[in-house]
Design a protein that fits this description.
By secondary structure, the chain is mainly beta. 3% of the residues lie in helices and 39% in strands. It has a domain of 244 residues: Distorted Sandwich (Beta-galactosidase, Chain A, domain 5), CATH 2.70.98. The protein is built from 2 helices and 30 strands. It has a 9-stranded antiparallel β-sheet, with no helix packed on it. A 5-stranded antiparallel β-sheet has the order 20-19-22-25-28, with no helix packed on it. A 4-stranded antiparallel β-sheet has the order 3-4-5-6, with no helix packed on it. A hairpin with a 3-residue loop joins strand 12 and strand 13. The chain starts with 10 loop residues before the first strand and ends with a strand. The relative contact order is 0.17. The mean pLDDT is 98.
C-alpha cells in the first residue's frame, strides 16, 4: 500500500497552511484528504484477495493540485457545483453575473471555487476530519456570506462519509458535490469499460449541446442512460446517440428514486476482476455520472498518465442549472436555513 507521505502536502497557499490527513478504520481501509479544496487524495480498498489498492485518481503532491487539477480530481465543488447556463441567474428580482469557465457556461463555482481554497481544519481524529470555509459575500459573483463545512469520516462499516453543512446571511445559490475519479481496479490501471454500474433511477435530465439540462425529465428506458440493472459502463457509451455526442460520453444527471433529504442508494459500481464493489448513498436528489471523457494524458500519481475514460465520477448533487429551472429541486439557501447533506461511499468485495 503506497500511502502518500503527509510531508508531500505541507505548504502554504495564499497565506494558509496545507496539510494531508490520513484516516484509517479497524479493517485496514485508508482514506487521505487534504484541506486544499477539501480534496479526497486517496482511498485504499481491498480486492477479494485482501490486496489494498488506491482506487482514486489524483496527484502525489500539493504543488500538483495547486498548479494543475483542471479535472477537479477529488475536490468539493461549490459554491454551486455543476453548470449554470450562460453564467447568469436571477434571485429575488436581481440578476447575478458569474464567471463563464466552461464553454458558454459557469461550472463548479467559477475560477476560484471551493476546490481552489484552503479550508480550516477544526476537528480531527484517526478516522475523521472536519474542515470549514467562509465564503465572502460576492465571492465569485454569488450573494451572501456562507459558512460551510465538510466532515470526512471513515467508519468501521467500510464507509467514507461526507457530511456537508452550510448557513448564509443572504439568499444565495448553493449546491455541493464531491468530484472523485474512481477506478475500482486501481487508479491508472486502464479503461473502466468493463466495470459494471447500476444507477437507482428511472429518469435522467437531457442536456443541450453545451451540457446544460434542457429542463426535460426523460425516462431512461430504451436509451444508453438505462442503468436500472447493472451493466458495463462501456456497453453503450459509444452508441450513435445525440446525448452521448453532446457529452462525448456520459456527463449527465440521473433523477434518483429516493425522497430528497433522506439517505438512499444512488448507485452501485463493481469491478468483476478485483471483486471491488462501491455503493454510493446520498440525501441529494441527483447523481451526475461523468466518464472522464476529457482526460487526455494527464500526469497522475507515480508518474502514471491518465487517459480518457480510465475513471468514472458519481457526483451526488442537485440538478445542474436548477436556479434557472424552477421545476427542478431548489438550490436556493436562505438565512435561517441549514444546508445539510450526506454522501457515503461503502466498499465491499464480491
Amino acid at each position: 500500500m503506497n500511502i502518500i507521505p503527509e510531508e508531500s502536502f505541507k505548504g502554504v497557499h495564499r497565506g494558509k497552511a496545507t496539510s494531508l490527513y490520513t484516516l484509517k478504520n479497524k479493517n485496514g481501509l485508508v482514506a487521505q484528504v487534504t484541506n486544499y479544496g477539501a480534496i479526497i487524495v486517496s482511498i485504499f480498498a481491498p480486492d477479494r484477495n485482501g490486496k489494498m489498492t488506491d482506487i482514486v485518481q489524483g496527484y502525489d503532491t500539493i504543488k500538483e493540485y495547486i498548479d494543475g487539477n483542471g479535472p477537479y480530481m477529488g475536490a468539493v465543488c461549490g459554491r454551486c457545483a455543476n453548470r449554470i447556463a450562460k453564467g447568469k441567474f436571477t434571485l429575488l428580482g436581481k440578476e447575478y453575473i458569474l464567471a463563464v469557465n466552461n464553454g458558454p457556461n459557469h461550472l463548479h463555482g467559477g475560477i476560484t471555487g471551493f476546490n481552489r481554497v484552503v479550508w480550516d481544519v477544526v476537528k480531527k481524529s484517526g478516522s475523521s476530519v472536519k474542515m470549514e470555509y467562509i465564503s465572502a459575500d460576492g465571492e465569485e459573483g454569488y450573494p451572501g456570506k456562507v459558512k460551510v463545512s465538510v466532515t470526512y469520516t471513515l467508519t468501521d462499516d467500510n464507509e467514507l462519509k461526507l457530511d456537508y453543512h452550510a448557513t448564509t446571511d443572504k439568499p444565495t445559490v448553493f449546491n455541493l458535490a464531491s468530484h472523485s475519479y474512481f477506478n475500482l481496479a486501481g487508479e491508472g490501471s486502464g479503461s473502466i469499460y468493463d466495470q459494471k454500474l447500476m444507477i437507482n433511477a428511472d429518469f435522467f435530465t437531457p442536456t443541450d449541446d453545451t451540457n446544460v439540462p434542457t429542463g426535460e425529465i426523460r425516462p431512461v428506458t430504451g436509451t444508453p442512460m438505462d442503468f436500472t440493472a447493472p451493466r458495463k459502463i462501456g456497453e453503450a457509451i459509444d452508441q450513435d446517440d445525440i446525448q452521448l455526442k453532446f457529452g462525448a460520453g456520459y456527463d449527465h444527471n440521473w433523477v434518483l428514486k429516493h425522497r430528497s433529504g433522506t439517505l438512499g442508494l444512488a448507485a452501485v459500481a463493481h469491478d468483476p476482476i478485483s471483486g471491488r464493489t462501491m455503493e454510493v448513498f446520498t440525501t441529494q436528489p441527483g447523481v451526475q455520472l461523468y466518464s472522464a471523457n476529457w482526460i487526455d494524458n494527464e500526469k497522475g500519481k507515480g508518474g502514471k498518465r491518465y487517459q480518457r475514460r480510465w475513471a468514472f465520477c458519481l457526483e451526488t448533487q442537485h440538478f445542474a442549472d436548477a436556479i434557472n429551472k424552477p421545476h427542478f429541486p431548489s438550490t436556493i439557501l436562505n438565512p435561517g436555513e441549514e444546508y445539510k447533506q450526506t454522501c457515503a461511499y461503502k466498499f465491499s468485495v464480491k
